[in-house]
Design brief:
Strand order of the largest sheet: 6-7-8-3-9-10
CATH architecture of the largest domain: 3-Layer(aba) Sandwich
Order of helices and strands: EEEHEEEHHHEHEHEEHHEEEEEEEEE
Number of domains: 2
Low-confidence stretches: none
CATH topology of the largest domain: Rossmann fold
Shape: elongated
Radius of gyration: 24 Å
Length: about 325
């Protein structure tokens, strides 16, 4: 296992600067999420050694590896396009790093067979990589990355080219590979929040080259530290803090759609536990299968509410749970 620490890491470009600190624990599966251009891929390139930082340290188990060559870092990377060698078959792709390390041919063959079984592709040794499906290519890329026995595995949006059903299966496969390889610390980059929630031990949200928040999937969803994190990690509504007489100094009140209760007829809940809004207009709805996502209008503000039914009335009363309100001032959480 390896612990990774980034201290004062900085990379400057003409129109962008990455400047952050980050810790990844031994054996952890950390996912980095953020919008396009936020610095996710740049960060992986710096960790792997494909780019050099302008300032800062990259520590693996306390040792600064900034000056260590790529091939000696004990770090492997799976690229977005997999970067398989088209002129080599599956076996030669996987064995490439072993050959560089001068591992004997017999041992290489045994290790390739073991890795192909590990990624559920036994017998694929002689297949041409140009004949592989997207999911098969991704597994071969994983096997090749693991062939050098890395202590840290980096994955740069490896599922972005796959369809939704295959992405779901492959992210489960990646998590299985991580869990069955206890010596592995994994850093996974994606812009897909559903992917991040389903696969991660911890999530780091990055914006404009800086870390907005790190925490468990539950924490970044339920207790976001910034308004940007709140919106980037899920649907939500923000209302002015002045709209309600609440004993807290905040300019924005944020809540998730599931914090809203929509009822027809008499409401028997504890009214003190809710913010109650009357004469809320139902302006639209999206059917999600397990529920409706209602688009509502109130006093010039749009509100999202999750409901088990589509209201028959144009104007309704909604109940927002006070315990699920999140308060922000100047974009940062108020606790």
């Amino acid at each position: 296992m390896a612990k990774l620490e980034l201290k004062g890491l900085k990379k400057k470009y003409p129109d962008f600067t990455l400047d952050l600190d980050l810790e990844v624990n031994e054996g952890e599966f950390l996912t980095i999420i953020g919008p396009s251009g936020s610095g996710k891929s740049t960060l992986l390139s710096l960790i792997s050694g494909l780019e050099d930082p302008d300032e800062g340290q990259i520590l693996v188990d306390g040792k600064d590896i900034v000056k260590v060559p790529v091939q000696k870092r004990g770090i492997s990377m799976v690229f977005q396009d997999y970067a398989l060698f088209p002129n080599m078959n599956v076996e030669k792709n996987i064995a490439y790093a072993m050959k560089i390390r001068k591992i004997r041919k017999k041992e290489r063959k045994e290790d390739v067979n073991a890795l192909l079984s590990f990624v559920n592709l036994p017998g694929y040794n002689k297949r041409k990589v140009t004949t592989l499906s997207g999911g098969e290519s991704q597994r071969v890329a994983l096997a090749r990355a693991l062939s050098s026995q890395p202590s840290i595995l980096l994955l740069d949006e490896p599922l972005s080219a796959l369809d939704a059903a295959l992405r779901r299966r492959m992210r489960d496969e990646i998590r299985r590979i991580h869990d069955e390889n206890p010596a592995l610390t994994t850093i996974y980059v994606t812009h897909d929040r559903e992917e991040a929630f389903s696969i991660s031990d911890r999530i780091a949200v990055i914006r404009s080259g800086k870390i907005e928040m790190t925490g468990t999937p539950q924490a970044v969803y339920r207790e976001p530290e910034t308004l940007f994190t709140a919106y980037f990690t899920g649907e939500g509504t923000s209302l002015p803090g002045t709209m309600f007489n609440l004993d807290i100094e905040a300019d924005t009140i944020f809540f998730r759609p599931e914090a809203v209760t929509v009822r027809e007829g008499v409401f028997y809940g504890d009214s003190d536990a809710f913010l109650i809004l009357e004469n809320v207009e139902v302006s639209g709805a999206e059917y999600l299968g397990h529920c409706y996502m209602l688009g509502l209008q109130y006093d010039g503000h749009r509100i999202l509410a999750q409901s088990g039914f589509y209201p028959k009335d144009k104007y309704i009363t909604i109940y927002i749970r006070k315990t699920q309100l999140i308060f922000f001032k100047d974009g940062s959480i108020v606790k």
